[in-house]
Specification:
alpha/beta, 322 residues, seven-stranded parallel beta sheet, Alpha/beta knot, four-stranded mixed beta sheet, 35% helix, 12 helices, 60s Ribosomal Protein L30, Chain: A, flat, 2 domains
């Protein structure tokens, strides 16, 4: 009955009462820590995807892995012909053995021969491996790596010309077509050199060279590890740094420092100038456009700005132009 203390199990045995327990001392801490991101399915040996990949590898032993294609390659009949016509510096021309010859291929081989380039006949397998795919149409042009200048070389050009330095710096311009067009505008309006950062920027390759229409051969480009630091060092040497910014109040057509030592900084169309780059500028200027157009790309913006600066530096420039 209820309250019967003699019932089996109702009375705690002496010495059985639990007291304070000893802590873990951190022994379980490691088990609570995260193990990092989950590996990809193909990297987990127990996953079906990994087992399928292993089976495929066994069926195709010796199959070459992915190839990192060199940025100094031009592939395809149209692209190769355009590069050779534009005079892109090249090392050799590779043509697939047994390739059906058409007019474009004939012209490419003739141009390469006239430029003294070695012309090699290789197997399609070799060409596939070199180009990283089979979409090469049987022809690949190996170009020469571009030789970048130093910032001091750009200033020396201005000194030798007896002119106040005029440089262009590109911030975050990743499209080689834009870079090539900027080089062309820079050569047209008396710029002494172009600065680009080593990271997050297009380099001078076959595409930029072609778009520049030969200007890349005459316009030195310096590649710097840190653009902001390079701009600061140029300021220490007396150059005024002006950034193009759609929110600025100064019109580029009325830039008060246009006739002095100057660096024009142009950002990307999508993001404009980076925050630290904008802070490094002595002044920002705007190109006035209709509200219906949100922004201009780097090539167009730099061309307009450089024309205005050239007008300020040489008021009679239009009269001299032909």
């Amino acid at each position: 009955m209820a309250g019967n203390s003699s019932r089996r199990g109702a009375v705690r045995k002496p010495g059985s009462k639990k007291g304070a327990t000893v802590g873990s001392g951190g022994r379980g801490r490691r088990a609570l820590e995260g193990k990092g991101p989950t590996p990809k399915a193909v990297d987990r040996t127990y996953h079906p995807a990994a087992k399928r990949a292993a089976s495929a590898a066994k069926r195709q032993p010796g199959k070459p892995g992915p190839v990192k294609v060199s940025p100094d390659l031009v592939v395809g009949r149209n692209a190769v012909l355009e590069a050779l016509t534009a005079g892109v510096p090249a090392q050799r021309l590779d043509v697939a053995a047994g390739l059906k010859v058409d007019e474009k291929l004939k012209r490419s081989i003739k141009l390469a021969a006239n430029q003294g380039l070695p012309i090699q006949e290789v197997s399609r397998t070799q060409l596939d491996r070199l180009a990283g795919s089979k979409a090469h149409q049987g022809i690949v042009l190996k170009t020469k790596p571009y030789r970048y200048a130093k910032v001091a070389d750009l200033l020396d050009r201005a000194t030798q010309a007896g002119q106040a330095p005029l440089l262009v710096a590109l911030d975050g311009v990743t499209d080689p077509h834009n870079l090539g067009a900027v080089l062309r505008s820079a050569a047209a309006f008396g710029v002494h050199g172009v600065l680009i950062p080593e990271r997050r920027s297009a380099g001078v390759g076959p595409t930029a060279w072609k778009v520049s229409a030969g200007a890349a051969a005459h316009m030195p480009v310096a590649r710097v590890p840190n653009l902001v630091r390079a701009l600061t060092e140029l300021q220490d040497q007396g150059l005024f740094v002006v950034g193009l910014d759609g929110q600025a109040s100064t019109d580029i057509a009325h830039l008060p420092v246009a006739d002095g030592p100057l660096v024009l900084v142009v950002g990307s169309e999508g993001h404009g100038l980076a925050r630290l780059t904008r802070q490094a500028c002595d002044l920002t200027a705007v190109i006035a456009i209709e509200p219906i157009t949100e922004s201009l790309n780097a090539a167009v913006a730099s061309g307009i700005a450089l024309y205005q600066i050239r007008q300020a530096r040489q008021p009679n420039f239009t009269d001299q132009a032909v």
